[in-house]
């Protein structure tokens, strides 16, 4: 199936590489609103701004799309903008062949899994989430949509992660913890307690430094 990548930044390039490794999609184009974007990224032509998608889908209904934008809130906004303009849009799920899904682990549409990711049995990755290399999701853990996980993150079993949570590199969460929507977990932090929505958590053990509007 032909794939269009939304975002010409570093994550966009990574998404192209993962899609090529998966071998399920042919990456035929990129869309990006940055007027200073390159015309070709890793051999893939940049077709124009994101609004280019609507006329493309009006002509050909065989494309799938992946939103490869690193910032959780920006990815959420662009994803919903696309859905509003093209209600029948098809979002791809791209999973590197060296990622491992154990048992009945599930991944929702629009997500990207990098090499070395391990999903435990019964875990669930929500819409349009990004799981970077060598991150581990424990058995029964549930991720809301639009989560971003940096390399080397470890989430304990039966943990509940809200929408739009960002995990910095090497951070970890103990088992059976609830992380509220739109939290930010600092690099190398270890979270051992439930956290309210919009929190910034840093340190080991993790401490709430501030709570932000959600």
TrEMBL record:
Enumerate the CDD domains for this protein.
LbH_AT_putative
Query: Which superkingdom is the protein from?
Result: Bacteria
Q: What Gene3D superfamilies would the database entry show?
A: 3.40.50.20, Hexapeptide repeat proteins (2.160.10.10)
Where does this protein hold substrate? Answer: 70
The coiled-coil regions, if any, are none
Family matches, as Pfam families: PglD_N
Q: In this protein, which residues make up the domain named PglD N-terminal?
A: 2-82
The record ties this protein, via InterPro entries, to: AcTrfase_PglD-like (IPR020019), PglD_N (IPR041561), Trans_hexapeptide_repeat (IPR050179), Trimer_LpxA-like_sf (IPR011004)
- PANTHER family in the record, alphabetically? ACETYLTRANSFERASE, UDP-N-ACETYLBACILLOSAMINE N-ACETYLTRANSFERASE
Q: What family, per the record? A: Belongs to the transferase hexapeptide repeat family.
Protein name, UniProt field: PglD N-terminal domain-containing protein
